[in-house]
């Protein structure tokens, strides 16, 4: 049974990071190091509560305001901090493509990586040592939980449908960034919430599952309650589903403890569960879903897909595009670079630079 005595947490001020710290406190796990982007207010509180040996802050101006003896600052702060740590487990909850380099370095250092940073596998899954990765996305944790050592016929994950799932199609194209942030089921970071509205988040999770479970036989459906996270169909014709409340502490606890035999989340009462229904992901409402077969047959193209998404999302965030234009931007950029399929980790970084510069 894996039971970590100390961990490094990258992205400690986000919801995954905060939940990881709760699990550390509950099971008396030492927090060796913490990394944030710019949220030094949260970091200062975490330092007081957990007394890490090292901290890293990507924003140098924010780092200058923090009085701490062993602080790393700058864009590569988390990478430089990793070199000084000894913990066998790194929890990577960083947001976006910036999380790839720390994942790569931690694996090179023979650390296990509890991975919530989707972009690491999306952009570079073919070139990572996936044997060292422990998934803490609820969908991939659910698949792992259901599979055990058994062979699956098909894997399924679920989507909430995002903030705009009920907006009339006539209004959808003009939707704003703020409207796309109003998620009906949960409150998480801005990027994952926007990705949920566009269905990019589910494309990313299909790619993650492709690399983690070595199969392209993966699909997704909308399940509005977010109680079912994953389903597995077995060769004998039976299917199992993983149900749990929307609380990331469950997969995090398994990542840090190996096995969990006590209550982490409140148990579901079958009599109180509303009828569960599944819906097909409609390509008219979610035009990005037309890329599903393409990215599963050419999974290395995740490097292009991720860069296109981040470029288009920044325009959307700045108010330079509507929701419909944001989605169209992604498809246009992806199409323009659809011949750029990386064959090495160096090419992943090269293609990412090309897409961002060209877009």
Shape: globular
Which CATH-level-2 architecture of the domain at 6-136? 3-Layer(aba) Sandwich
* Terminus-to-terminus distance: 47 Å
Percent of residues in helices comes to 40-55%
Structural class: alpha/beta
The helix-strand sequence is EHEHEHEHEHEHEHEHHHHEEEHHHHH
For the biggest sheet, the summary is: 7 strands, parallel
Strand arrangement, major sheet: 4-3-2-1-5-6-7
Please tell me how large the radius of gyration is. Answer: 20 Å
Strand content: 5-15%
CATH topology of the domain at 6-136: Rossmann fold
The top level CATH class name of the domain at 6-136:
Alpha Beta
CATH superfamily descriptor of the domain at 6-136: NAD(P)-binding Rossmann-like Domain
Brief digest:
This protein is of the alpha/beta class and 359 residues long. It has helices at 15-26, 40-50, 60-63, 77-82, 100-108, 118-124, 138-147, 169-172, 177-180, 190-198, 200-213, 249-257, 292-297, 302-317, 323-336, 345-358, and strands at 6-10, 30-36, 54-57, 71-73, 89-92, 112-115, 133-135, 154-159, 218-222, 228-233, 239-243. Strands 4-3-2-1-5-6-7 form a seven-stranded parallel β-sheet, with helices on both faces. The protein has a four-stranded mixed β-sheet with strand order 9-8-10-11, with helices on one face.
């Amino acid at each position: 049974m894996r039971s970590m005595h100390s961990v490094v947490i990258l992205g400690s001020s986000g919801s995954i990071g905060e939940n990881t710290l709760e699990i550390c406190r509950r099971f008396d796990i030492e927090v060796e190091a913490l990394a944030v982007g710019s949220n030094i207010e949260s970091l200062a509180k975490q330092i007081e509560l957990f007394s890490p040996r090292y901290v890293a802050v990507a924003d140098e101006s924010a780092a200058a305001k923090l009085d701490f003896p062993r602080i790393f600052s700058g864009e590569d702060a988390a990478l430089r901090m990793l070199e000084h740590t000894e913990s066998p487990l790194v929890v990577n909850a960083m947001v976006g493509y910036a999380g790839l380099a720390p994942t790569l370095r931690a694996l090179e250092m023979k650390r296990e990586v509890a991975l919530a940073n989707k972009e690491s596998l999306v952009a570079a899954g073919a070139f990572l040592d996936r044997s060292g990765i422990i998934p803490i996305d609820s969908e991939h944790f659910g698949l792992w939980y259901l599979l055990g050592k058994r062979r699956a016929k098909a894997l399924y994950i679920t989507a909430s449908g995002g903030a705009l799932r009920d907006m009339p199609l006539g209004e959808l194209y003009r939707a704003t960034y703020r409207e796309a942030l109003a998620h009906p089921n949960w409150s998480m970071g801005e990027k994952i919430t926007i990705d949920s509205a566009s269905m990019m988040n589910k494309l990313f999770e299909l790619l993650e599952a492709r690399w983690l479970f070595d199969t392209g036989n993966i699909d997704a459906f909308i399940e509005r309650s977010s109680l079912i996270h994953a389903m597995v169909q077995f060769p004998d014709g039976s299917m199992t589903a993983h149900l749990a409340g929307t609380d990331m502490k469950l997969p995090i606890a398994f990542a840090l403890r190996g096995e969990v035999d006590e209550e982490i989340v409140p148990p579901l009462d079958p009599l109180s569960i509303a009828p569960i229904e599944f819906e097909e992901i409609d390509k008219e409402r979610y035009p990005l879903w037309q890329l599903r077969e393409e990215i599963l047959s050419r999974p290395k193209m995740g490097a292009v897909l991720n860069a296109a998404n981040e470029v288009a999302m920044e325009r959307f965030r700045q108010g330079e595009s509507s929701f419909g234009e944001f989605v169209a931007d992604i498809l246009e950029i992806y199409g323009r670079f659809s011949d750029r399929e990386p064959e090495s980790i160096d090419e992943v970084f090269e293609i990412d630079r090309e897409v961002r510069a060209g877009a």
